[in-house]
Prior knowledge:
The protein has about 350 residues and is of the alpha/beta class. The protein has twelve helices and 14 strands. The protein has two domains: about 5-150 and about 290-335, Rossmann fold; about 150-290 and about 345-355, Phosphofructokinase domain (Rossmann fold). The longest helix is centred in the middle third of the chain and has 22 residues, at about 150-170. The termini are far apart. The model has no long low-confidence stretch (mean pLDDT about 95). 6-O-phosphono-beta-D-fructofuranose binds near residues 77, 138, 181, 182 and 234.
Amino acid sequence: MSLRRIGILTSGGDCSGLNSIIRAAYIRAKTLGYELFGIKRGLKGLLTDPPEYVALNDDICNDSMLTTAGSIIYSDTRAIKESGRSVDEIKSLLRSGYKKLALDGLICIGGDGSLKIVSELLICNGQDLNVVSVPKTIDNDVNYTDLAIGFQTSVEVAVNAVDNITSTARSHERAIVVEVMGRGAGFIAMNVGIASGADVILVPEFKYDIEKVKAKVKSCFSSGKGYCILIVAESVEADDFKHDKNYVDDVVKYTQITYKGIARHIANEIKETGIESRYVKLGHVQRGGKTSINDRLLGSMFGVEAVNLINNHDYGKLLCYVNNKIETIDIKTAVKNPNKTLSKDDPYVNIAKQLGVYVGEI
Ligand code: F6P
C-alpha cells in the first residue's frame, strides 16, 4: 500500500525556526505513516508544472535543522503577483499541482500576507484543499497567536547586535539610533529596546514628540550616563519623513512598503543638540541567526500539531500559541481582522515606561 502524503511549504519572508517546524513535521508524519513533501519556493512550487518538491528524508531532516536559520525548501514572496495569471487560473493550477502530488494535506507556514493568500486561493468555493497554516514572522503581528515562529530569535539577534553597539556608544560618548524591522508593528522594537537597556523606543503605534526625544538624549549626558541608545522601528515616520507605500499583490491587496531609513533621520535631528550621533540599520541580519531555544520549542510544537491536525482531518485551521498552549482558529475567521499591533496596555510598554524609557506620547 502506498504511503499517504503531506506537503509542507514556507511562504513570505524567511526567519529562523522554519526548519525546526519542518523537522518536527517530518518526524511526526513518518510516525503516523505519511511521506512529507517539501514544496519548493512556497506556492510557486505548486504552480509549476510539474510541481517542484523534495521528498524529505532522515538525511535532510537531521537534528541540525533545529538550529539552522532560513528555509531548506526556499521561500517566495511574489509567486502570485509575478505569475501573470488570473486569480481563477492560479486557483485551478494550485489544485492541479496538489492533485499531481497526490497530497492528503498541505501545511502552509506563513505570515499575515501568506495567510490571506491561503484563505483566498486554497479554501474557496467548496473546493477546499486540506490545508492548515502555521504562523511565521519576525514581526509577530499575526493575530490570535501570542507568538509566531521567528520572532524570538530575531529579538535575540538584534539584542546581541545592540549590546555591541552599546559598548562603542559608551566609549565615544555618542547617541546611536538603531533601526529594527517589524513592518507596521512595534513588537521587535519594544522587546529589543527593553532587553538592551535603551533610553528611547519609537514604534509606529505611538506618536512621539521629537523635542522630547532630544530632551531624553540630552538627559543621558547631563545625568552622567554619557551615551544614549535609541531603538526605532523601521515604519516610524516624522512630519517631514514619510515612507513610500505600494501594493504588490492583486489577490489580497497585501501592502508592500519601501522603508526609507528613519534611523538616519532621527540621528540627524539629534545632531542639532550638539551631541554626536550615529545610526545603524540592522536589516536582514534579524532574519538569520542560530534558532533560539524558544523558537526550537515552538517550532517543534507547531510541526507536530500541524501534522496531527491533518491526520485528524481538521482542516482550514491556523495553529496559535496562546498562554503556553497550542490552540486553533479557522483561517477564514483569522484573516478577517487586521494585523496585531502593539497596544498601550501591553505589559512590556508599561514596563518600559516604568524604567524611564521614552516610548512616545502615551
Ligand atoms: O515581514 C518580515 C520582514 O522582515 C519585515 O520586518 C520587513 O519589513 C520585510 O520583511 C522585509 O522584506 P524583504 O525581505 O522583502 O525586503
